[in-house]
């Protein structure tokens, strides 16, 4: 029984026709890192938002972080499905992500603006992953990246609509 606990995970060859799985997995890992960072940032804003739009922002961010949390699992499992290892350290997540940390004190409006910017940045990275996936014969990752991009584009639009001037 204890021998079962000594198995160390490692990359595997998965022969699905995906060309250059390291490249595809690297793009997926970047998006996974962004997703994790933005999930936490969104959750922290959800906990700490105040003001007249509290209820709207609180509920909107809850739906968004729940979606991203589920997406993180899907992204990591796709990395494994192409035969590579998903990131295993928070340092790697931080280093790969384009999501910037938040200041300790921030207004509700600036929270929405910051989150919208982060969603837009991730959508851009997903557009690049769509191209990479197509170029490397990986329609599954291409479809996943397209769906994730649609989520982030919609999230950015909704957050911007809250703070339209």
Which sequence of SSEs, written as H and E, runs from N to C?
A: HHHHH
Total helix count? 5
State which percent range the strand residues make up. under 5%
Count the beta strands: 0
- The unreliable regions are none
Helix-strand category:
mainly alpha
Q: What global shape is seen?
A: globular
Distance between the termini: 63 Å
Gyration radius, in Å = 17 Å
Mean pLDDT: 93
- Helical residues, percent: 55-70%
Largest sheet: none
Itemize the secondary structure elements and their pairings:
Layout: H1 21-48, H2 54-81, H3 90-96, H4 108-135, H5 139-162
Helix pairs in contact: 1-2, 1-3, 1-4, 2-5, 4-5
Task: Give me a quick take on this structure.
The chain has 165 residues and is mainly alpha-helical. The chain is 70% helix and 0% strand.
Description of the structure:
This protein is mainly α. The protein is about 70% helix and about 0% strand. It has 5 helices and no strands. The protein has helices spanning about 20-50, 55-80, 90-95, 110-135, 140-160. The protein is globular. The mean pLDDT is about 95.
Distinctive features:
70% helix, mainly alpha, globular, 5 helices, 165 residues
